[in-house]
Amino acid sequence: MAVSTGNYAIKVLKSGSKVGDGYLVGGETHAANVDRYGRSHGGSRSFIEVFFGNKIERRLMQTEVVELLSYNAVKDLVEYGHNIPSKSDSEEPDFKLRPLFVAGIPSYFWSLVHHCSNSSLSVTTSVEDMLKYMQPELDWSHLERGGRSRTLSEKAKENRRQALMAQGDKNEGDATDIDWDLDTPSKDDKDGLVECIGPGELVDDFISILALLAEPHECKNPRQLANADPEVLFAHLNNKCGKNNIPPPELSSVRGWVDTAQEVSVKEIMLEIVDGDEEVLRCLHSIGAASPWDLTCYEEESDFLAGKMVEMGLAEEYKALVLSWIWRAQRALTVCPWLIDFSST
After folding, report:
1. Phi first, then psi: what are they for 216, rounded to 5°?
2. pLDDT (tens digit, 9 = 90+) per residue, 228-272?
3. What pLDDT, in 10s, does the model give residues 58-105?
4. Could you tell me which of 290, 293, 254 has the C-alpha nearest to residue 58?
5. Which residues contact 236 (CB under 8 A, 6 or more apart)?
6. Contacts for 308-317 with beta carbons within 8 Å, 24 or more apart?
7. CA 332, 315, 284, 67: dihedral to nearest 10 degrees?
8. How far is CA 22 from each of CA 17, 107, 108, 258, rounded to the nearest angstrom?
9. How far is it between the farthest Cα atoms of the chain?
10. Where are the alpha helices (DSSP H) in 144-202?
C-alpha cells in the first residue's frame, strides 16, 4: 500500500479550502466537538487532504479528503480496538486490532498516519509500527509476522493442509502445492515489449539491444522487464546505442518502461496465483484484494476473506483455497519485491 512505500502526502486544509460541497471557514468547519472515540457532538472539525499512489488501479496518484481526528482520539481508538473483550469463555479476544481493520476507516487510518508522520521519532512506513507507537505499552505480539516478506506461519500452513484434507482433495497437485513457485517466463515476446516501451522509430532497435542482455538481466518479455533494474538497462542501452550511433533513451523513459511492465505483469501474476480463474480475480478486486500484497494482509483473516467471496456468489469449495492463494502471494512478493508497490486499497 501507499504508506508502506512512502508514496503519499498529507496536507492540513486551511481556511477557504473546498471540502465536499462547501468550504472551510477559519481553517475548520462548524460542525461538532469530537469525543474520545472521534465522534462529533457540536463544535468544530479539521480536515486533511491525502494524496496517495494506487498502481493496481493504474492511477499513480489519488486524492481523498477525510476528517482529521485528534491525536488523543486516535490514541484512544487504538487502545479501545486492542482491548475489545472476548464474547466466549476463551481468554483470547475474538477480535485483534490489525492494520487491515484500520485501513477500512479512512479518517481513522489517515489520522493515524498523519500523527505518526509528525512525531519526533524517525518516519515509520509500517502501519504495525504506527499502532505500536500510539500504544507502546500494549501487547502487539500478534503483529509480529516477519516483516514485509510476510512468510506464511507454520500454523497457517497446517490450517491449509487440514482444510484440504477435510475437503478430501488429495490429488498430486494439492500435495505439492506448498512447493508452488512463481516462474518468470523466458520466451521472447516482442509484441509485449512494444506495448511497454511504446511506439517510436527506435523501438525495434531498443528491443534488439535489450535482447543482448544475459542473466540475471535478461529482458526478452514484459515479465523480465518488470523485474529489471532501470539503471542497469539504461547503462546497457546507453553503451550499445553509442556504438551504433543511435540516440539513447532517457533514464526517465526506461523507468517508465519498467513501470508499465509491472502494471501489465501484476494481473498475470495474480492469475497464476488463483490458477487462471478470472471470476475469482474479479471477486478479489471488488473486495480490495487484487494484488499479492493485498492477499498477504489476510493471513490471519483468511476465513473472513473466504466468507466475503462466498457472499459475492463464489462456490463454497473456494474457501479451502484461500490459504493457498495467500501462501502463493507471499512467495510472489519474495520473487518479485516490486509487487509490494501494488495495492487495490
Report:
1. -90, 20
2. 999 999 999 999 998 889 899 999 999 999 999 999 999 999 999
3. 445 678 888 888 889 999 999 888 876 655 555 555 566 777 678 778
4. 290
5. 209, 210, 212, 213, 217
6. 309/280, 309/283, 309/284, 312/283, 312/286, 312/287, 313/283, 314/279, 314/280, 314/283, 317/167
7. -130
8. 9, 18, 22, 41
9. 77
10. 154-166, 172-175, 190-197
Helix ranges (DSSP H) in the chain: 2-5, 71-82, 99-103, 106-117, 127-134, 154-166, 172-175, 190-197, 203-210, 222-227, 230-243, 251-273, 278-287, 292-296, 302-311, 322-335
Q: Please name the amino acid found at residue 264.
A: V
For residue 129, give the nearest of 148, 143, 108, 149 by alpha carbon. Answer: 143
Taking the C-alpha atoms of residue 71 and residue 50, their distance in angstroms, rounded to an integer, is 17
Amino acid identity at 32: A
How far is it, in rounded angstroms, from Cα 226 to Cα 188? 14
Please check whether residue 53 is in contact with residue 71, taking contact to mean a CB–CB distance below 8 angstroms: no
125: number of Cβ within 10 Å? 18
- pTM for the structure as a whole: 0.59
